[in-house]
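A quick aside before the break. I want you to see a complete sequence-to-structure record at least once, exactly as it would be stored in a machine-readable document. Don't worry about memorizing anything.
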Amino acid sequence: MRALTVTDATRARPDQERRWPDWLRHLRRRTTSGRFIAEVDGLRFIAIALVVFFHVHDYLFTKFLLPAGNVGSEDLLDRIAATGHYGVHLFFIISGFVLALPFAAHQLSDRPAVKLRAYFVRRLTRLEPPYILAMLGLAAAIVVTRAPHPPIVPHLLASLAYIHNIVYGVPSTINVVAWSLEIEVQFYILAPALAIVFAIGNKALRRAVIVAAVAIVLAVQGWLAPAAWVPLSVVGFLQFFLCGFLLADLYVTDWKGKPSRTLAWDLVSLVGWPLLIALWLQKSPNPAIFIVLAFLLFCAGFRGRITSRALGTPAIATIGGMCYSIYLLHFPLISMIGRHTLSVGAALKPWAHLLIQTAIIAPPVLLICVVYFALIERPCMERDWPQKLTARLRGKLRSA
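That is the input. The structure line, written in tokens, reads:
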């Protein structure tokens, strides 16, 4: 979702660099160092694909009262599609990993220290312009179409300030998916303090502290379960971010930024993903098993010979690198497009209708998001874009 930069501790393999065709390089996510981990964008692809599939299903359920993915449903595809919201949890693991990397690299492999001012300024310049433009555009669309809605301005301001969850106790009414972005911001603020764990020199102790923190978080969540605010705050998802911290520790110390790859880890992927989906299909998935399986599958994403190559496939990694733009826009686009396509396949079985609608809706959604990424998000990936824009404007003023 949040395609944050990755430090020099992360280096793309030469074979991955050679596999990228020139036309896709122009759409590839930019990083501060000019290097990236293709597998991370591949994992982002899995996460965003799950979320989009979930929302297509959700739209069909709303309009046609399809089975809501309940455990008793005989439609397996329907049940699987209804678990797609867990893709957001995978995004949280990725965010934890990416945010932890520069802190871990500094403490554990003598990389430069993270300057907090630059850390927060970078978030503002990299992530805010696409977010603000998307929210303003969606708010304008609500006004123009006269769609039923609470007072626009208060909800828009709360959404732009990332406090809609807190103020109203519900996800943003401007763009419902912004609920998770508010949680990301909460974690972004917490991350530098949590990263103190990397100052623990003893590897076993450091990792034991992270694992213990995950166990404590799960226990606290169980205790606070009745509270409505928990699933709308970082408290309800901190274990996933901490899982990313543990992955960053492994990546920097054990793997030295260049994980070795074996077919054994491919077997973990082959068995682990079906097991994770089977877990999601349960009425109340065990959170401890969830986090362990997710951790192993992320390790397999880096360590599996075939898995890492598949995740680093240029087309897959390119789309994954656009996940922030896709995440921001896909929900309203599904509604906008779906209202004109709903009748196609409606007479078929629910699973067939779902597949047909996904095949119809996904391409235009992707196309629009690619344009938004290329014009809005990707330019913001350049660290010095504000300075370049200011210089350009000054030049035009002088020549006017």
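Two observations worth writing down. DSSP finds 18 helices and no strands in the chain. The radius of gyration is 21 Å. We'll return to this after the break.
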